[in-house]
Structures are given as C-alpha cells and as structure tokens.
Amino acid sequence: MLYREAGDFKTTYRDDGQTFPITLDRLGYYAILFVAVLIVPFVINDYWASAVLLPFLIYAIASIGLNILVGYAGQVSLGTGGFMAVGAYAVYKLMTAFPEVSVVIHILLAGGITALVGIAFGLPSLRIKGFYLAVATLAAQFFLVWLFNKVPWFYNYSASGQINAPERTVLGWAVTGPAASPSAKYLICLGFVIFAAWVARNLTRGMIGRKWMAIRDMDIAAEIIGVNPLSAKMTAFGVSSFFVGIAGALLFAVYLGAAEVTEAFGINKSFLVLFMVIIGGLGSIFGSFAGAAFLVLLPVLLKNVLVGVLGWPTDLAAHIELMIVGALIIFFLIVEPHGLARLWQLVKEKLRLWPFPH
Amino acid sequence: ELIVPNLSYRTGPYGANGTQYADGFNDYFTLLNERDGGIGGETISVPECETAYNTEKGVECYEATKDGALVFNPLSTGITYQLIPKVGVDKKVLYTPGYGRTSAKNGKVFEWVFNAPANYWDGASVAIKYLLDENGGDLNGKKIALVYHNSAYGKEPIRTLQELAKKHGFTLTEIPVEAPGQEQKSQWLQIRRDKPDYVLMWGWGVMNQVAIQEAANIRFPMENFIGIWWAGSELDVMPAGEGANGYKALTFNGVGMDYPIYDDLKTHVIDTGKASQGGEHVGSAVYSRGMYAAVVIAEAIRKAQELAGTSAITPEQLRDGFEQLDITPERLAEIGLPDFGPEIKLSCDNHGGSGMARIQQWDAAEKKWNLITEFMEPDAEVLDPLIAEDSAAYAQEAGVTERSCN
Amino acid sequence: MDQLLYGTEVLINGLMTGVMYSLVALGFVLIYKASGVFNYAQGVLALFAALTLVGIMEGQVPFAHLINAMFGTHIENFGWNIPAVFAILLTAGVMVVLAILIEKLVLQHLVGQEPIILFMATIGLAYFLEGLGDVMWGADIKTLDVGLPQGISDVVEQTTANWFGYGFFIDRLDIWATIIAALLVAALVAFSQYTKQGRAMRAVADDHQAALSVGISLQFIWIMVWSIAGFVALVAGIMWGTKSGVQFSLSLIALKALPVLMLGGFTSIPGAIVGGLIIGVGEKLFEFIMSSPDLAGSWFGFTISATENWFAYVLALLFLVFRPQGLFGERIIERV
Amino acid sequence: MLDTAAASTSQTEALLEVNNIEVIYNHVILVLKGVSLSVPKGSITALLGGNGAGKTTTLKAISNLLASERGEVTKGSIVYRGERVASLNPASLVKKGVIQVMEGRHCFEHLTVEENLLTGAYTRTDGAAAIKADLDMVYDYFPRLKERRRSQAGYTSGGEQQMVAMGRALMSRPETILLDEPSMGLAPQLVEQIFEIVKAVNEGEGVTFLLAEQNTNVALRFAHYGYILENGRVVMDGTAQELRENPDVKEFYLGMSEEGRKSFRDVRSYRRRKRWLS
Amino acid sequence: MLDAPAEGYVTADGRQIGPVVMDLKNITLRFGGVVAIKDISFDIRQGEIRAIIGPNGAGKSSMLNVISGFYVPQEGEVWFKGYRRGPMRPYQVARLGIARTFQNIALFDGMSVLDNIMTGRLNKTKSGFLSQALWWGPAEREEIANREQVEKIIDFLEIQNIRKTPVGRLPYGLKKRVELARALAAEPQILLLDEPMAGMNVEEKEDMSRFILDVNDEFGTTTVLIEHDMGVVMDLSDRVVVMDYGRKIGDGTPDEVRNNQEVIDAYLGVAHD
Ligand SMILES: Nc1ncnc2c1ncn2[C@@H]1O[C@H](COP(=O)(O)OP(=O)(O)OP(=O)(O)O)[C@@H](O)[C@H]1O
Ligand SMILES: Nc1ncnc2c1ncn2[C@@H]1O[C@H](COP(=O)(O)OP(=O)(O)OP(=O)(O)O)[C@@H](O)[C@H]1O
Ligand SMILES: [Mg+2]
Ligand SMILES: [Mg+2]
C-alpha cells in the first residue's frame, strides 16, 4: 500500500472540505510549490523559460479559465483566442496609457475587461446550446480578431498594426520588455498561476461551482431546483474570460513582447486551449495543469527527438510530428476520455489497492 | 564553425513557399561548405528549426538555436517583430530581406536589424515607378487598387501608396482580404465594377492563387496586375494555368537557372545528394530568394572576417560586417550570380540598401518567369520621411535612444 | 440603379458561393446525423481526397519523400497519367479504406462517449490526416484539373448585358458546383429519410447503446457514413481544389462551412444547402454594402471591409437566437 | 443450493449459460463476483435482487453491451447455444436472436414512435409484409402507441417510452429477450398486461425470457425459475414456486409477513433496523 | 373529507392538516395537438400527502411540471398561499420553497452524491461572489453549516457510505434516494415526488415510504406524490387525484378513489385491496 487514504480521518467538515484532504497529496503539493517558487527561478535559463515554462504557466491560466467554462459549466467555447486577444490589447492600451501604474494592476484590469467582453458574448448561451454554442462562440473569435486588426486605436496607430510591450517593472525588476530576465518573467507568471488556481479552486468547491456543474450536467433540472441559468452562465463566462484575459495579457506582455492579433490569437489558439482542457480533464483544475504541460511539452519533445536525436529533415519531422500529436490525442481520448486528471486518479486508486488487483 | 540558424516553415498554410525558401537558403551554405570548405575556413552550420509561421514556435526556435548563433532570418513578419527587441538584448543580427519591419532600415534605431536589399515600401514605390514608366510618367486620374492580406504584412504598403497617390494624382482603392483568402468573390466583383487600371497585390499563401484565378475569371488584363515579391512564385500562378499568363510581380533577385552558380550547385550539392529535400525546387523563384538571402549573409560574414581579422567572428563583428557590406555587380558575377540582385551597400545608418527591385512576368506556355525590367530605384523623397517617422515612433515606444553614426 | 444591378450580381454570386460552402457542410451533416459526431476533420478530409486525386492522376509515388529520405533513393513518379474519371473512382476507393480505418482505429473505441470527446477525437484525426497528406503526397501546391470549366460564363454575361445593359459575372465552375450539389442533396435526402439504413443512421445518432441493443452494427453504419462523407469531401475537394490549387489551406474551408451548418441545422441535409445560400448571400451583400462608399459610405459616413470571416458567424448567431436548432435542425428535446 | 439448482434445470436444454462471471467497471470497480446462471430454452427466468445487486450488469454482460460503459467481463464465460458470446459483437448477437430491452428505456428520441419500432426490425430480412404484420401486432398490444405513432419518442411519457422499448424488441422477432425492469414506471394494469404479453409470446412463439425485475411479486407469478442476486453474487435460486414460498423471500421481496401484506404506513422502523440520527 | 374545514383538521393518526396552500384552477396544457391536461382543478393542503395517479401518458408528470413552473399552461391559474402566481421561471418557483424529484432521474451525473445534495441548499446560501472566490469567513462558515444540514439528511436516508461516489455510478434505486435527499436539502414547503419508488423492490419501497412519512411527520412538509404502486399510494396518501388522458376522473380519499368505478375502469383494472 504505497498510497493510502485509509486511516486518514477527518473530524471536522472544514477538514473534509479542504483542497487536498489526503496528507500525502498535501505534502506533494507543498513540495511542488516549494520547488516552483524557491528553486526554479535560480536555475532557469532563456530556453527553458521561453520554450517551456512561460508557455506552460500562461496556458495553465488559460486552461483553468476555459475549464471553468467548458469543464465546470458545460458551455463549449471556441472563442478563447479572441478573448486572449482582448486581454492582450487591453493590457497594451493600459500600459501605454497609464505608464505609472503597476503592470500587475494592468493585467488584472485586462482580465476584468475581458470578463465583461466574455459576458457580452456569453449571452447567447441562454438560448443556444452544445455545438451550436461552440460554433457561435467562433463569432466572437473572428469578430474580435477582425476588430483589433481593423481599428487603429487598439494598436495606437502603429504602421503595421503590431503591438509591442514596453518595459515595466515590478518591485524594481523588469518583467516585460526585452530586458526582463527569465526568472522575473517566470515569477510573475507563477504568481498569477497560483492566484488563478486558488480562486478557481475556491469557486469550484463552493456553491457557485455547484451551480455551474448543475447547469452542465442537466440544465433543465438545475433550473427547476433553483439555479438561475442567467447568473450561473454569466458568472461562468465572466470568471472564465477573466482568467483567459489574464493569460492573453501575460502571453503578449510577458512572453511574446510583441503580437499581431491574427497570428498570435487566431482560431488555433482556441483549439489549443480547448485541447489542453480536454486532454487534461474536464472539470479538474489539476487537469488544466496537466493538459497545458502535455501540449506545451509534447511538440518540443517530439521536435527535439525527431530532429535532434534522430536527425530527420525538419519538414518530415514536422509532418510526422503532426501525425504523432494527432494520434496521441486520439490515443489519450481512447484510453481515458476524462483526461489525464482521471488517469492520475485511477493510478491512485490502483495504488491504494496495490498489490491487490481490485 | 559558424552558426546560421534557419528558422523555416515547411508545414501549415504557407509551408509550400517556406519549403522552397528554406531549401535555397540551406543549399547555398552547403555549396560553400562543400566547395570552399565554408567561409574563410570556417564551415557554416545551418541548424534548421520549424516555426510553422507561428510566433510562439518562432520564439521557441529562436531560443533553441540562439547559443552561438550569428544571425537569424525567420521569414515571417510576425516573428520578426517578436525578435526585434530580443536581438537587441541578446546581441544577434536579424536579417530580414524583403519582409519584416520596414523602418528597420534606419540603422540608428535598429542597430541589429538589416533588411536590404529592399523592403515593402520600396516595393510599393518601385511598382508605382514602373507604372509611371509605362504611362509616360503620368498617373494622373488613374485608378489603382491594392488587394492585400489583412495583416501587418499586407497593411505595410498602404501608407506609402497613399503618399504616392497624393504625389502622382492617382486614386488608390484598398481592398483587404481576410486570411487565408480562399474566397475572394466580393473583392473581385468589386474590381470588376470599379474597373481600376491597375491592381497591386500584397498576398501570401492561398490568397495569391485565388486572386490570380479570380482575376483570370473576370478577365482582368493580367499585364496590369502586379504582385509584391511574395506573390511572385511559380506556386502562385500555376493553379490558374493559362489564365495567369502575363501576370507580373516585383522581385529583388534574379529568377531562372541561367546563372553559373547552378553548375556548381549541381556538381557539389545536388549530384552528391546533399541538396535540401533532394533538390526538388532548385531554380524556383522562392528558392532563388532563399539562396539570395544566404548569399548576402555569407558576404556579410566574409566582410566581418575581413574586418575582424579572425575567421571565428562574433555577432557584433557580423553586425559590423553588415554595416560595411558592399556587394558590387562584379562581386555578384564572381559568386556566379551576375546581375542577380541590385548592388547592396550598407552603412551604420542605412540598413536597407538601395531598395531597388525589378519586374518579372509569367509566361504560362513556357511555365517560367521572365525579367522584363532592370532594377529600379524607389522614390526616396517619399520614403525617407516615412521611415524617419516610424522609426522615431518605435524608438520612443521602446525607449531606444538613437545611436550616433559618425 | 447601377447599385441595384451590382447588388443583384453580388447576390447571385453569393448564392453560388453559398453552394460551394454547402458542399463542405454536407459532409459534416452526414456524419453528425449518423453518429452525433461533430466531424472537424471534414475539411482535412477534403484536402486529403483532393491530394490523393491529384497524386493518382499524376502518378505520384506515395510517401516518395519519406522513402527517399530513408533510403536515399530518388523515386518521385510512376510516370503514368490516369484519366480523371478513373482517378476519381480510385480516390473514392481510398476514401472507403480510410473510412474503415477510422472506424476501426478511432470510433470503435469511443462508442458511447460524450460528444465533445468525439469532437476532440476528430480534431486529432484532422492533425493526423494533415500530416499524413503531407508525408504521402508532399506539401507542394498542386494544380487540379479534372476538366471542369472555369471563368466567366459568356452566355450569361451577354444575355444579361442585352437585358439590363450590364453583363453579370457568373463563374462556370460555380454553375457546375450548383448542379452537382443539387444532385448530391437529392440523393442524400432520399437515402436518409426513406431507407432502412438511413433510419438506422439516425438511430445511432440518438443513442449508441440502444442502437447496439437492437442489433444495428455501429461499425457498419459508421463505415458507411464516413465513406459517403469521404465521397462528399472528394467532391468538395475537387471544386475548391480546381479553384485555388490543392494545398494545405483547403482544409480551412471547414471554417467557412461551420456557420452554414449552424444556420441550417447540424442534422438537416436540405439545411446545409439553404444555410449555404443564406450565408453566401448574406456575407457577400453585407461586404458589398458596407465596403461601398456609395452605400454604407453615404449612409453611415464610413465603410468597413474584410467582414466576411466574422459576418457569416454573426449572421448565423442571430438566426440561432431565434431558432436554437438552426433553420431545419431537429428540435432540441428538452424534457424532465 | 447452487448444485441442486443446476441439477434441477439440467433436464431441459440450457439455451444460455452464464458461468461464474466477474465484471469490473473502469478497471477498478468489481461488480459481479462470480455469477452463474442457466436459462433453459423456452423458459421465463427472473433475476431478482435489490438496487445495485448487479442485475443490469449481468444482462449487459450477456448482450455484450458492457464495453461501451467501460466495463468488462474478466472471468468466466457466457455461452449462448454452445457459442461463447464474448466473440460476438452486439449486432451479431441480435442476429442470433438475443435482444435486450434496456433499463431506462433508451428510445431514439428524435425518431418517431413508429420509426423506433421499425429500427427493431433492423436485422430482419423476411420482407416488408412480415414487418408490417408485426407492427400491427405491437400496436395491438399497445394501442396507446398507435395513437402516438407520429410523435417523436422524446416527447412521449415515461410509460409510453417503456412500451416503445418493449415493442421495439418484439419487432426483431427474437429467440431470447433480455428484459431489464419492464414494469418500471408502468401503470398497474399495464404491468399485468406486459407480463401477459411476455407469457403469450413465451408460450405462443417459444421465446425465451430472462428478466431482471424489482417487482418480485409479479415476476414470480409469471416466471418459471428465479435467481436472487445480492451484492454481485447469486444468493438463492429455485423455481418460482419454491421462491414464492421461501419465508425470507416472502419477507424481504414480497413484503409479506405471517399476517399477510402489511400497510406501508405501518412499517414503523426500517427493515434492516437501521437508526437514523436527527 | 373533500369539504374539509378551510383552516384544516387532524387526521386519524393524529397529523395536523392545514389550510389549502396551493390551488390549481382549470389548468389546460397543450403540446401542439396533444392535450396533456384538460381543464383540471384541485388543491393541496398544508401538511398533507397528496397523490396523483393515472395511466401512462395521463398527464401526471406534466401536472408536476406545471406546479414547478417548467411548463406554462395555456389556461388556468395557480394559486400559492393565497396569491395568484404570475408567470415565473422555474428557479423562481424553487425559491418559493417547492422542491421536486424527477421521473427520469435528473441528478447531476458528474458530481458526487454529496455535491448533488449540496446543490439542494442553493437557495439557502447567501454569501456573495467575492467572498466565495476568496473563501472568506462567511463563505466557509456557510459551507460548513450547509454541510451539517446535508449530513443530517444523508444520515436520515442512510446513504453515508456513498457520500463521495459520483452519482453516475450508482444503481437506479440509490439514485432515487439521492434525488430525494437533494430535494429535502432545500427544506421545501412543498415536495413533489414523481414516481419515487419506480424500480424498487418491496423492501426498498418500504424504506422509501418510511422516509416520506417521516419527512412529513417531522417537518410537516406537504408532499405531492405520483406513484404507480397502488399499495403505496393507498397506504400513504391523504387524498388522491386520478387523471386519465388529461381529464380528472376522481379526487378524494384513498377509499373513495378505490371504489370509484370510473377509476377502476380507467386505471386500476381490478379493485385493489
Ligand atoms: N458504468 C459504471 N461504472 C461504475 N460502476 C457501475 C457502473 N454501472 C453500474 N455500476 C455499479 O455496479 C453495481 C451494480 O449495478 P447494476 O446497475 O447492475 O445493478 P442493478 O441490480 O441493475 O440495480 P437496479 O435495480 O437499481 O437497477 C452498482 O453498485 C453500480 O454502482
Ligand atoms: N414537451 C412535450 N411535448 C409534447 N408532448 C408532451 C410533452 N410532455 C408531455 N407530452 C405528452 O403529454 C402526455 C402526458 O405526459 P406525462 O409525461 O405527463 O404523462 P404521465 O402521466 O406522467 O405518464 P407516465 O405515467 O407514463 O409517466 C403524453 O402523451 C406525452 O407524450
Ligand atoms: Mg438495473
Ligand atoms: Mg410521468
């Protein structure tokens, strides 16, 4: 019995309701937090930061956001790219308009603005359901991208329509702009990730989360037992877009440094984040992390193996990489449709029984 | 060993073009390594990294290949914008021939970026110059339509063309096409109604093929249809078949196989099986452009070695090499590419060269491009203030102080 | 007056474009109807079919690039040219094989899963097929010519010029597309409404388990529909490939088909056509009006352009607000 | 007890034989822990037991529908007419004459009532006339369905759906019907009627029935033989007669005590003498 | 007994039945051509157990849906506690204190039993969005208070051992019990039960009956019950409405209904003991 739950009794409901009720889990969680905050920043380099860690952290936030909407509230959205763009452009406008205000506040405000936009585009969800809604959210995706491309005010009338993140500091450390060190960028993203995960966890374990899940599982029954579908869906769209907006803001300001809306926030982004959520596990915050890690790491890993180790020509490698990614997605869906999170849970269940088969 | 990463894209919507370009780029360095043992005794290593024309993968590729690298050529305006601030900090050269940020021509602001021999504004100006020549120097009252990819890339020439329209008295209609651009019926119906005298096109990928097909469909006179160099490959015209005959495009490099260098390429690279992708695309328009980019980089390296007195140069030294680069027609002939490109003479404040370009025209029967003009100069009078203005804006936004070039 | 004529021309062309969208949308509808699977891979299927068709017609060696890279050989071409008709038949055969493989390797293992999981699986499939298409046939842009006419129809132009003093533009390819689409739709409607297989297909879409329990072989139904959808994709691939060359971007036409679907209803074959027509006309007219200085310019004082990508979706969205199941979709059953 | 049961049924030919099967869901949840039963040809066999005993699971194991619920038979075998079921897919099992009426109705919501019934005839090859005749037969059994034949099944009432499910199974002219809780949600006289139909079909056409039922009362009146499942195990079996008379069965499943049926209102404490805190 | 005094009365076994809380007047409900309910009126008294019976498709569930606001009748009025209820969304009806269970179980499959039951306490939760997001004092306190209530119900219905199981995995009968628990968690004034005992064996039905009676006794909860098991209906209910294809064909005490010839013909088949 490697992993045990038995004997881990709770004597209060507060204990029972905590995030990691099992001691072993809790210890693991603290260990990861310790490494992430106190060790990684000192060993991080440019490559690890930009190729792996920053995208992982930023996409984790976006996945948490989308997971709230899709995984918890059951509203499938393909507008993530567009909402990330809102976050990015909002933070850009704020950063350039109010240079003296802290960028952290800008990012939070950008999230807030995105939340409002998300709510506006979420309104049709009251009538439209399932895939119809999914396709309808593409309207948001395409419209927003077009808007940011079209209206010069959004990109401060720059000749090419690109936006560039100016340098901003937090506690004297540059976190945006080319001079920002990898560890500063990493730490600010990490901060937002922890914040996002914590808030998401709080919301999903409480009554709001239950309303969302009720709407997801059976919206009519939910309404009959007293869930107001309007407020449940709109809070889901709002919270989800808030996180997605923060992710968009970080992606632009901290990670990329410059962006063009059609390229950086196209429909592929929407699919990518949705993939993370589904591969990771719908309705699981851990799953959001797992999904983000999987889809950020997998291509990098494949590329390094196929090109670096096997020495294949890059184009062949790239095409085969597509095939492998596609095949792996299918494979994972077949093995465990409920995602990596469920797989992890099953492993734990197996471990609990170990060495007995059931 | 000198490292010149090749941030290429061989997949995705623009993969077909990216492949040809990357092949040309690789093959030229392979030729130098095989034939001359590299440059100045240093072999050139060209690690390739697939960006899929995607900015994030571009950044990853940049970071992955950064160590020891001298110069980057990402062939994507989006990735270029990403890298411009980064190369300043990392001190790497960014070479973006015929794409990227136009105002990077101003070396005082963009210390590490070079975009010789020509940029989009040059292209726009040369196209108008050509039309002026065709019309006896007068475009007054003419209607010119610009069909463009609705992105940073496509929007680049608008400012210039507007200025030129003021100057020469033609009217400019802007017709954006949303990427990817498979469906352009509205745009071409509009052209059919408006009957512009000329159509200019800033397109990329499938947009080009469809535009050329639609132009043929409405029987727009192909000789009045001029594309930027990225809308001037065989790939763009072939699907329209006969209909594309007479279509014109700008180019800043020679086309076709009538250059001595191809003999060397054949003996040293293609026949030895070392060609990138088996040499399928040798001689195509985009291949030639990739090769040309490699030629310029190689020349800059040569120059830098000369200046630094060492063969193992650093990126700083390469920058100096670029800034003193002078590719004369004689030198081009020596390389085996006579009249292949314009003369390139760069300096500390001019990172963009002369901006000359020429026109090529498609012959559908022969399935080849013919060069129909000599290199033409852009209109510096119009362009210089624009460049000054845009680079100043960037300098202010990014907090860069202009360096002095004396 | 001129604006009216132009508007009419735009409208007619919008209808034609709509038909082209419908060709892609049809494939979606079939698969959705039969399995409740929202098949994102339909666009890639069209690309794959077109690539295969060109490859077969031109006698390309499949996987040549891979083989060459692995064995250092230089094979490219079998050196034969196959007439279009045979090539189309052969390609249809390939699509059947593909359908069988998809069923065996993917769908079979996902019986009874939630729709979104199946949807994701088809996106995985799209990636896979995209890579496979590239590896098999190369990433070049290929010219496809199966003998369909292209370009302005002189007959129409002259007749209308005689009538209205303004010759309308209609692409002959579009006329063909319309004819083919009409035939396809008639055949498919008859199939799904009036045959036993068609009924079984709809049953499967409702409830996998129950379908199994009455002895409907999911395997058979799925192979059947995916084959038909593959064939529809081939038709769409031919049409679009003739227009723009066969290349990666062909797979993106799926995005143009989605609003069509949404508007027509995911489950309705006639809906795919009507939806296509509405979307085609709507987006073209909107673009025409909004980008014309004489219309929007004089009405609102500004013009906007390049609206087609989003307008189709917004239009469909508006329709959905009033009919959440699309114009012809099956009513969404809401009961407790 | 098991042995004697086997002995008593072995006189008639066993059509369906379930030998000691074990079923696991999701690779971890062990639900059936060795269930064996045998269904003689032409009989009505009842599977009784409380909630969660594993009746549905047993039926699904037989009709091979577990796979789509992430369940699998990990031990034991199921043999139908001498052939192992595991090697057949559900569709060919239907062709062989085994059809299941699933718990919870599972109608095709978007199909009309009539189309639902016709899907039942999917595997039949004996021509449209025969199918039409059977359709009329089903409408005879359930006149209510005839009235609602053009409505989408999703909009019919719970009981109507149950009739559709039953009718659909009859439409396939099966040799064996696995019935999962046929009486659930049906009005009393309809329950009676459904069982009458079961009996009629059984006697008239020799169709074998294996039915899972909570309504022990009715089930034991019509069945020939019964198995009682608890917790994934067969705890008792015997002829319907024997079971009806068994005092435990009487008490726990038929709700009878020595004094006869008790009023539900008079059940003052819980059967299993559980206490609740409040 | 139908003309019982307005202010209520005491039953034989000593329970207090109050005045009319809900009065349904001339309800008619149509779906296209199908008339599910045809001009039906009846009332529900405080604290009583009111059964609705009738053949399949008679319109019983539809009636419940009308009461809980999911179907809006074309004609007729619903009076609740002396006020005429205006057009209301179902969640607003729920806030009035009407909770229900469903014929085709409508549990939230993706959630655990505990969470399902906790959703019942939805309308008893007051803490705001921010406080929940940050898990501030009130949110946590309220959560714990809700949990205590829910645990009582869990104990009461004896489902302690499945507390954390996802409901999707539960067998049918337990699901029904969880649904009841969810409805109870709302501390409703009126509890609507749609075939709570379908798919149960006698023993389980006895348990269920016990729960229903205890809830009624303990909290005085008014209960509307649809059930096909006549034994249960006759034993538990105070008054019974009989529907037949949209019409009301009987209304009265179990004994009255049992001996009503029309009811026997339409529904019971044989006279039940
Ligand atoms: N898909 C599933 N995944 C996990 N466990 C399951 C699944 N389906 C059923 N079970 C479990 O298997 C056990 C037996 O369930 P089953 O449905 O066979 O019981 P049953 O006898 O039919 O009960 P009922 O009379 O309530 O229908 C139950 O404990 C249930 O929790
Ligand atoms: N949303 C709806 N649309 C169309 N018809 C409906 C709808 N809801 C119910 N009906 C019809 O109304 C009638 C009454 O249905 P209801 O569900 O109320 O019956 P019931 O009395 O509950 O029957 P059962 O005992 O079988 O559950 C049925 O014929 C049903 O088909
Ligand atoms: Mg069961
Ligand atoms: Mg009912």
From TrEMBL, chain A:
It comes from the Bacteria. GO terms for molecular function: branched-chain amino acid transmembrane transporter activity. The keyword Transmembrane helix applies. Coiled coil: none annotated. It is a multi-pass membrane protein. It is found in: Cell membrane. One of its GO terms (cellular component) is plasma membrane. Keywords: Cell membrane, Membrane, Transmembrane, Transmembrane helix. The chain crosses the membrane at residues 27-44, 50-69, 76-95, 101-123, 130-148, 183-200, 236-259, 271-296, 316-335. This is Branched-chain amino acid ABC transporter permease. It comes from Paracoccus aurantiacus.
From TrEMBL, chain C:
It holds the Pfam family BPD_transp_2. It is found in: Cell membrane. The keyword Kinase does not apply. Keywords: Amino-acid transport, Cell membrane, Membrane, Transmembrane, Transmembrane helix, Transport. GO terms for biological process: amino acid transport. The chain crosses the membrane at residues 12-32, 38-57, 78-102, 114-132, 175-194, 214-241, 253-279, 299-322. Coiled coil: none annotated. Belongs to the binding-protein-dependent transport system permease family. LivHM subfamily. PANTHER family: ABC TRANSPORTER PERMEASE PROTEIN (PTHR11795:SF451), BRANCHED-CHAIN AMINO ACID TRANSPORT SYSTEM PERMEASE PROTEIN LIVH (PTHR11795). This is Branched-chain amino acid ABC transporter permease. The lineage of its organism: Bacteria, Pseudomonadati, Pseudomonadota, Alphaproteobacteria, Rhodobacterales.
Automatic annotation (TrEMBL), chain D:
Residues 16-256 form the ABC transporter domain. InterPro entries: AAA+_ATPase, ABC_transporter-like_ATP-bd, BCAA_Transport_ATP-bd_LivF, P-loop_NTPase. GO terms for molecular function: ATP binding; ATP hydrolysis activity; branched-chain amino acid transmembrane transporter activity. This is ABC transporter ATP-binding protein. The lineage of its organism: Bacteria, Pseudomonadati, Pseudomonadota, Alphaproteobacteria, Rhodobacterales. Belongs to the ABC transporter superfamily. Keywords: Amino-acid transport, ATP-binding, Nucleotide-binding, Transport. The keyword Nucleotide-binding applies.
Automatic annotation (TrEMBL), chain E:
Gene3D superfamilies: P-loop containing nucleotide triphosphate hydrolases. GO terms for molecular function: ATP binding; ATP hydrolysis activity. SMART domains: AAA (SM00382). It comes from the Bacteria. Residues 22-270 form the ABC transporter domain. The keyword Nucleotide-binding applies. The keyword Lipoprotein does not apply. One of its GO terms (cellular component) is plasma membrane. Keywords: ATP-binding, Nucleotide-binding, Transport. This is ABC transporter ATP-binding protein. It comes from Paracoccus aurantiacus.
